[in-house]
């Protein structure tokens, strides 16, 4: 607990920290907590092992692969649309829906099918009876509201174990359920991996008889087999990517799209302008290139990911002494200006995505306003933000940047294309009742229900 933490939004410092992955790692306590759920997935590993995994995995997340997955995004968005349409019919033309919960079901189906060729059927109401879905929920979920004191004590102990290594040797109530869930995930993961390998050997065939894979795991297996034997990822490392896909590709995308719909309820002009542009595209099943050609949709999604970045911050720890350069000097004691930060081994940096995206010295005086039009003419200062996509730190930057950023952006655009064309949205509670609840991601919740789950109640109607 005596760790020194430094909070910075200085873009030069951020660039230095996220690009020098040989010096700056994720904190050990964060990696321990993630590894307990994910194993040695790409979110956990550092150093040479991480570089090996990224080298092999990068092609699976390339532009051409995401283009091939776009029909999956559209199909499941249409399935969600049809589910909502039935609700409207049952309730007289308007339904109050928890948009966050609904989108979480859909994105779970997306990551199942597009991630590793697995059907959760969450939109069909089968998530609770699906053993992989139950195992995943057990691994990432906290104590239920109806939990016994013993279950809550076990959850608290597991929360403390990453911070206090000595506690990691103490068995916690509920550990057996976690081990069972982990075993279930490993068993199903091995089955999926075996199927992907078998398809790789005989060739994938789609409806037209073309040989190509249709999910990220299959893309990954194909890329891995193309490597020399000594460069390949082990089966254990490939298996670790299955829960990694689930964690990284599920709630973050659902949360970002939920905030997008929230903002549409708060600005009818933006909602109408976006809907008009989407209707102007005379194609119910657009390609990814067609989705990317829609300028207002593109600006709107960028602004959502700036203003409502799902993950508000990330952290790095120095593995050795270092000197971090600054774009803007700071004044410390005795009025002295400093143009760099002298860092000691073990010191942590808190990299605030939220604060960086609201910094007026970078984004302009209107940085705290939601304005998609800003993306038509950005200030030059924005170019200093380390990024893998459009000067946004939402997906971080450097060698540890989010590998699935193209997947997420394409999925969000596909969901908005289908839903905004079909429905009108109105917030079902007073805007003052909405608060931000931050855990790993920033979700909407209700002030009037402090013990309630994260949610966004919205009145949904067919678009006129």
UniProtKB/TrEMBL annotation:
Signal peptide, first to last residue: none
Keyword list, A-Z: Heme, Iron, Membrane, Metal-binding, Monooxygenase, Oxidoreductase, Transmembrane, Transmembrane helix
Compartments (UniProt record): Membrane
Domain of life: Eukaryota
Cell inner membrane listed as a keyword: no
Keyword set includes Metal-binding: yes
Predominant place of localization: membrane
GO terms assigned for molecular function: heme binding; iron ion binding; monooxygenase activity; oxidoreductase activity, acting on paired donors, with incorporation or reduction of molecular oxygen
Family membership: Belongs to the cytochrome P450 family.
Protein name as catalogued: Cytochrome P450
Organism expressing this protein natively: Schizophyllum commune (strain H4-8 / FGSC 9210) (Split gill fungus)
């Amino acid at each position: 607990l005596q760790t020194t933490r430094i909070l910075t939004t200085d873009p030069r410092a951020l660039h230095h920290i996220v690009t020098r992955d040989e010096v700056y790692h994720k904190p050990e306590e964060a990696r321990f907590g993630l590894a307990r759920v994910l194993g040695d997935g790409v979110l956990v590993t550092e150093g040479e092992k991480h570089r090996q995994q990224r080298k092999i995995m990068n092609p699976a997340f390339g532009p051409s692969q995401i283009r091939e997955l776009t029909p999956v995004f559209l199909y499941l968005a249409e399935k969600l649309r049809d589910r909502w349409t039935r609700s409207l019919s049952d309730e007289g033309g308007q339904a109050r829906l928890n948009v966050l919960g609904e989108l979480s079901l859909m994105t779970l189906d997306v990551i199942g099918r597009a991630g590793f060729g697995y059907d959760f059927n969450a939109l069909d109401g089968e998530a609770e009876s699906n053993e992989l879905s139950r195992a995943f929920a057990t691994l990432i979920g906290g104590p239920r509201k109806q939990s016994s004191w013993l279950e809550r004590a076990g959850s608290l102990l597991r929360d403390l174990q990453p911070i206090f290594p000595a506690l990691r040797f103490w068995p916690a109530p509920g550990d057996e359920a976690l081990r069972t869930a982990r075993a279930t995930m490993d068993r199903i993961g091995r089955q999926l991996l075996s199927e992907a390998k078998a398809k790789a050997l005989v060739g994938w065939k789609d409806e037209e008889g073309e040989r190509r894979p249709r999910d990220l795991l299959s893309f990954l297996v194909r890329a891995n087999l193309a490597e020399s034997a000594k460069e390949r990822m082990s089966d254990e490392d490939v298996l670790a990517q299955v829960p990694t896909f689930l964690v990284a590709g599920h709630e973050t995308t659902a949360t970002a799209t939920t905030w997008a719909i929230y903002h549409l309820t708060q600005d009818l002009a933006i909602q109408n302008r976006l809907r008009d542009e989407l209707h102007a595209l005379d194609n119910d099943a657009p390609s990814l290139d067609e989705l990317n050609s829609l300028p207002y949709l593109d600006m709107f999604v960028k602004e959502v990911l700036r203003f409502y970045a799902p993950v508000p911050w990330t952290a790095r720890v120095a593995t050795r002494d270092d000197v971090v350069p600054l774009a803007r000097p700071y004044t410390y004691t005795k009025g002295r200006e400093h143009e760099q930060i002298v860092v000691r081994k073990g010191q942590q940096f808190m990299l605030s995505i939220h604060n960086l995206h609201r910094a007026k010295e970078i984004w302009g005086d209107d940085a705290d306003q939601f304005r998609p039009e800003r993306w038509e003419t950005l200030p030059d200062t924005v170019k200093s933000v380390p990024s893998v996509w459009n000067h946004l730190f939402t997906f971080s930057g450097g060698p540890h940047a989010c590998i699935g950023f193209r997947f997420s952006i394409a999925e969000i655009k596909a969901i908005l294309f289908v839903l905004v064309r079909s429905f009108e949205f109105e917030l079902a509670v007073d805007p003052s009742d909405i608060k931000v609840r931050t855990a790993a991601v920033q979700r909407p919740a209700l002030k009037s229900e402090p013990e309630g789950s994260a949610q966004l109640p919205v009145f949904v109607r067919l678009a006129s």
